[in-house]
């Protein structure tokens, strides 16, 4: 694993976009590793020709998770609409003349909201981030086929868990609840994600500056 300053990663993403007409960059990693932060910074640095379409928009709705009996495992691989996500990536990769609208996940209501993220035809780089971009099993295997590059974001395990607990607490969970989630279902997910690390094009740790 190599630590990269943001400008180096931004330059790599911009070079990918220059290959055109539209390129898709995936950023993957376990919960709390920093993939959402990195993805947002890349898009901000590249500018208006880049767009961020997170995998989290494909969370199943709360009502559906309760119906399926999976609500206590929200975030696990079977709590997402994987086929819908692959379909959306396919539309984005096709780079047609129309604006594509992607869903976004709103943590304040714990629900995905359709039509939240516009990706107009002039966007040359779509950055998507999420946990399961490199899982080889169907239908997730279709994700890797549509992405031009995938970066795996790694982090010291103790620091990752500290950040994850803090994030859960920031969204209203008690410290006990946050630790139970981070060291429980989130850790099961993290262990699955770690098995996909070798499928990435680049393994990185972001450093300031």
Automatic annotation (TrEMBL):
Record has Transferase as a keyword: yes
Keyword terms, alphabetized: Kinase, Transferase
Signal peptide (UniProt feature, chain positions): none
GO MF terms, alphabetically ordered: kinase activity
SUPFAM superfamilies (alphabetical): P-loop containing nucleoside triphosphate hydrolases (SSF52540)
Protein origin, superkingdom: Bacteria
PANTHER family associated with the record: URIDINE KINASE
Protein name: Nucleoside/nucleotide kinase family protein
Annotated organism of origin: Asanoa siamensis
Taxonomic classification: Bacteria, Bacillati, Actinomycetota, Actinomycetes, Micromonosporales
